[in-house]
Amino acid sequence: MSSAYHRKKQPERVRSQLLEVAARLSLEQGIAALTLDAVSQAAGVSKGGLLHHFPNKLALLDGLFDELVARFDRAIEEAMAADKVEKGRFTRAYLTVCFALDQGAEGQGWQALTIALIAEPHLKARWRAWVARRAAEFATTDSSPDCLLARFAADGVWLADLIRSHELDASTRAAMLEKLKALSLA
Amino acid sequence: MSSAYHRKKQPERVRSQLLEVAARLSLEQGIAALTLDAVSQAAGVSKGGLLHHFPNKLALLDGLFDELVARFDRAIEEAMAADKVEKGRFTRAYLTVCFALDQGAEGQGWQALTIALIAEPHLKARWRAWVARRAAEFATTDSSPDCLLARFAADGVWLADLIRSHELDASTRAAMLEKLKALSLA
Questions:
Q1: ipTM value
Q2: Do B152 and A157 touch, CB atoms closer than 8 A?
Q3: Helix extents (H) in chain A
């Protein structure tokens, strides 16, 4: 690789590293306790270097949110691409992704952050925009009350996984997923 | 009322007032931005007076959590008392309370806080304990997969109301509640 390549990529790598560290600290200590100083120290990046990417805490939270939504979108697109039935396809993909959260994917730690992020007032609005955009995009295939209900149940399971509020055995979990997928076709 | 009564009650009143202010500030600015100084100033209570009730930010968050759970428990007990059918009674009460969140009850503002609170690591553990205790308490009447699924859907609706992520019209909402109540009896 040329050094020009390195020069171009380096800032992106620092940015990713800062987000990884911010995610880890948020998970360990809660988002309320997260400070730019702590991220800068734990990442071994100067405060100036951090401020170049994230001028304040809100910008850092925005960055975490963007990354989470991008991962979620990619996972949904993959699941949709593997499903040949048009009716309820978005809902089944949504179910698949939400139910997969406990599978120990590398993204799991990150996803546990979602709950803290969407509690932040300005990120709530951004999540609302995502929901509205997707609802409009898939209105012809996924707007039935049963599809909506299935997605709400998926949100509940996702929430339970994130906060580890329930101990669900694998068979109960699989039965629930099948039942909800059937609703998407009703 | 005697002055002895006043002396006894005054600290409780200050505590409630501090919690109200902390809840309002958390909703306005997010829990991450909440500081003891801001609560003390907004409540017109000295920093010493605040520290007497809440020695640090975690204690303040614990206090908010206790209050929220107490309100949630009372609402569930009321709903259960009004339901004569034993099977799935806890689930129907849970559904009723979760779906009522958008009804503009005085507790609504407070409940919007729940999502921020359960994202805090040590409060997650407290919520998990609540779920486990209730699941054990109502194991004979409310442990079917359908009851569980109904409660997950209620969590999803509750989450949607809290973060205002979906615009649900009243008839869709009512139909969903009826469908989920029917599941609790299946």
A1: 0.79
A2: yes
A3: 3-29, 36-43, 47-53, 57-81, 89-99, 108-111, 114-118, 121-137, 139-142, 145-163, 170-185
Q: For residue range B124-146, list pLDDT tens digits in order.
A: 888 889 999 999 999 999 999 99
CA A8 to chain CA centroid, nearest Å? 27
| Partners of residue A165 in chain B, C-beta under 8 Å | 124, 127-128, 131
Mutate to test the interface with A, among B165, B167, B169, B178 (most CBs of A within 10 A): B165
Closest to A25 measured CA to CA, from A55, A52, A57, A47: A57
User: For an interface test with A, which of B28, B166, B179, B184 has the most A Cβ atoms less than 10 Å from its Cβ?
Assistant: B166
pLDDT digits (tens, 9 = 90+) for B2-46: 455 555 578 889 999 999 999 989 888 878 788 999 999 999 999
Structure token digits, residue A12: 């992106």
Q: How far away is chain B from the Cα of A10, in angstroms, using its nearest Cα? A: 30
Helices A57-81/A121-137 angle, 10° precision: 20
